[in-house]
Amino acid sequence: MKLIREARMGRPKSFKTGAVVGTYPKPLLYLGFDRGGLDVIPTKGAKRGDKDIQMDCCYEDITFVKPLDIGTAMKQATIPKVTAIDFCASMPMVFQLDTKPAASQDQLKSFEQSYNMLVANQKTLPYKTIVVDSLTGYTDACLAFISSYNPNAMADPRQWASQAGGLCRKLALTITNMPCHIVVLLHSAIDKSELTGEINEQPNVYSQVLRDDFFGLFSQVFYAMKKQDGTPMIWVSDKYPVKGIGPRWPQGLAQEIAPDFASIYGKELV
Questions:
Q1: Are 55 and 23 in contact (CB under 8 A)?
Q2: Phi, psi dihedrals of residue 152, rounded to the nearest 5°
Q3: Measured between alpha carbons, how far is 83 from 31 in angstroms, rounded to an integer?
Q4: 36 exposure class (CB count in 10 Å sphere: 0-12, 13-18, 19+)
Q5: Which one of 126, 128, 134, 236 has the largest count of C-beta atoms within 10 Å of its C-beta?
Q6: 4 Cβ partners below 8 Å, 6+ apart?
Q7: Alpha helices in 79-156 (DSSP H)
Q8: Segment 155-194, tens digit of pLDDT
């Protein structure tokens, strides 16, 4: 079967998570680095707006598991529509008046352990789709990890930015080898060229090297946004001020389309 390797970026609240988790093939595994990322999924019977994308799941369909429990969760007789791991629960809770990133290895260590369980069981993987939400939050976890084992690197962005970018790149290169659909969500940020003054939307990651070749790591890259009337949609091809987006497949998509699975892949995938 042809598999999706999609990156979808956009500003916060641009309906990235809702469109993907709510419409992509199930069972679905959600790896969460954004606090409350699944809050956009409505509860059963909740009133929805006329412009909302029709979802095939509700909040009650989500089963939250701890990172080290994913091995057991994969082997259950009945797999939930959505299985979610909230890595934000591993974030340090102590508040300190320190301008450096919080030093913590818990988030990245727990992710490493659960992720490697998925890799070890990939031949019997029960999930049709795996979603990482978001790469921006994962980058923050990488920064906390670097701050923990190499605090001296925090004084020079040239050290920690490349290391954080390298960990993000490693995740993108490995997860796109999984035998299921993969969607990586991330935030975007305005970038202004110091040489030309041109303003563009760029992936919100720390490493400039990663930003430069990020879109080449995925087969589909879309930009999520909402129209003035609140209707969610995605840009499919290059459009100022977003450059580099576009799919290797499917071909023939309109420049602006609805962000759900059927609108993008419905003519090629069932």
A1: yes
A2: -65, -25
A3: 9
A4: exposed
A5: 134
A6: 129, 181, 182, 183, 219, 220, 265, 269
A7: 106-120, 135-149
A8: 777 777 788 888 889 999 999 999 999 999 999 988 777 7
- CA-CA distance, 33 to 37, in Å (whole number)? 8
Measured from the Cβ of residue 219, the count of other Cβ atoms closer than 10 Å reads 16
- Segment 49-76, tens digit of pLDDT: 666 788 999 999 999 999 999 999 999 9
Domain ranges for the chain: 5-38+55-265
Token code pair at residue 21: 């988790």
**pLDDT band at 46, cuts 50/70/90?**
confident
Question: pTM above 0.90?
Answer: yes
Closest CA to 33 of 108, 103, 97, 118: 108
CATH architecture classification, 5-38+55-265: 3-Layer(aba) Sandwich (3.40)
Is beta strand 28-32 parallel, antiparallel or unpaired with respect to 82-86?
A: parallel
Q: Number of helices (H) and strands (E) in the chain: give both, helices first.
A: 7, 11
7 band by pLDDT with thresholds 50, 70 and 90: very high
Distance CA 25, CA 130 (A): 10
Report phi then psi at 241, rounded to 5.
-100, 35
